[in-house]
Amino acid sequence: MSTQEKNNISEETNEDLKTSATASILLKRLPEDTASILDSYKSRGNEKVTLRFMPIGRTPTLKTAVFTISGNQKFEVIIKFIKKQLSMRKDASLYLFINSCFSPAPDERIGNLFSSFKTNDCLLIQYCTNVAFG
Amino acid sequence: MNKQSNTRDLVWNGSLSISVTTESSPLCYMTNIPRLSYIAFILDEVRKILCPNEKLDNCWLEFEGVPLKSHWPIGVLYDLYTATDPDAPRSPVLWKLVLHYDNFPASQLIPCNEPTTFRTLFFNALKESDYVRNKSASYILSLSNSATEELWTSIQKHDFEVYQRFIPRLRSAKYDQLPVRIYITPDTPVVQESVSCKETLGSMLHKTLPKLFPSQNIAVLAKAIVHGISIPLSTNMNLLNQELCYTDGFVHIVIHML
């Protein structure tokens, strides 16, 4: 599939990376070069990854099945995205599974899931409106 | 007792002393909580004592301005946010947390205070780690209802007798892959990797975070902490899998800067 056919999922700023006063005091004491190494890890996993969505059972199919998104995004962004695509209410239940197996926690990074669970450079995500896999 | 089971026992019994206060009440809740346990397991008890009229859904714990995730092992939260150096001499520590019962920080925390919602999250983490080891969650999915219940109760009640019966299957590695989560600093995204059990901790960290671990053998800029213990870089990953794995099937490694 060419890049033109892939759609981008709109992204959100991550707000869950807060630091404690104690940790931040310790980190401020680090030499400059060490601090810059740590800084470089903050943007680690920003690369775009490819997702392929598959409905289960009677859940409607999306118009496009393949999307791209930054690896630093949280899994919950995908949950919101599919709900929007299917015109579901925000509080309606939607279940997402990686490789027909497990649902990641909403705060897991997509890049991490991609690197551990991709098939053919694509992360397979099944979705349905009722529980499908245990 | 052989050396193996002794390490597992020590890890299982590792605990933290915590105190919880609220901004509005003079009461203080104090307890010893296993490092392997979760805030999700104690939050309701804390609420009942400190603010019985408030709803559990709205409750959350905070440390120095950071909302603490109920579904991360409490030992990981402690090692990450207190940035305590396990090799530095210190007197016993009381970890001071604050309970809030309004303004739930929904952009930072997953609502999972009820045991049933947390149970779903926990078993999904277990399936995820099982998938890394076995390329399917066959073991978790093959558990009977009563076995699943037994495993869940052993986690909730922190019952090693029962839990250890599940260990040989939970940590078997047919494909030799092991799921690790690495926490670099509180404000850096968590790094999750599937790594080979044949690696050493040093070679794994050198591959994953080359700039922070320029050497496989010597901790130059940072060291690795698991269960509040600094682990030598020469340690085999298989040992971490067998002895230092958390109950969700992951090896959680917190990086401590030197």
Task: Write up this protein.
- The complex is a heterodimer of chains A (134) and B (258).
- Chain A is α/β, with parallel strands linked by helices and 134 residues long.
- Chain A has a domain at 46-128: Ubiquitin-like (UB roll) (Roll), CATH 3.10.20.90.
- Chain A has four helices and five strands; from the N terminus they run βααββαβαβ.
- The longest helix of chain A has 11 residues, at 32-42.
- The mean pLDDT of chain A is 90.
- Chain B has three domains: 3-100, Ubiquitin-like (UB roll), CATH 3.10.20; 115-170, Serum Albumin, Chain A, Domain 1 (Orthogonal Bundle), CATH 1.10.246; 177-257, Ubiquitin-like (UB roll) (Roll), CATH 3.10.20.90.
- Helices cover 36% and strands 21% of the residues of chain B.
- In chain B, a hairpin with a 2-residue loop joins strand 3 and strand 4.
- The longest helix of chain B is centred in the middle third of the chain and has 20 residues, at 115-134.
- Chain B is globular and about 55 Å long.
- Chain B starts with a helix and ends with a strand.
- Classes of the chains: A alpha/beta (134), B alpha+beta (258).
- The interface between A and B is large, with 41 and 44 residues.
Proportion of residues in β-strands of chain B = 15-25%
Low-pLDDT ranges of chain A: none
- Summed up, the domain count of chain B is 3
Structural class of chain A: alpha/beta
Q: What number is the mean pLDDT of chain B?
A: 93
In order across it, which strands form the biggest sheet of chain B?
2-1-5-3-4
What is the strand tally of chain B? 10
CATH top level class name of the largest domain in chain B: Alpha Beta
Rg of chain B: 18 Å
**CATH fold name of the domain at 46-128 in chain A, please?**
Ubiquitin-like (UB roll)
Give the oligomer, counting copies of the same chain as homo and different chains as hetero. Answer: heterodimer
Identify the overall geometry of chain B.
globular
Level-2 CATH architecture of the domain at 46-128 in chain A? Roll
Function (chain B): Involved in cytoplasm to vacuole transport (Cvt) and autophagic vesicle formation.
Membrane topology (chain B): Peripheral membrane protein
Domain Autophagy protein ATG5 alpha-helical bundle region (chain B): 117-170
Protein name (chain B): Autophagy protein 5
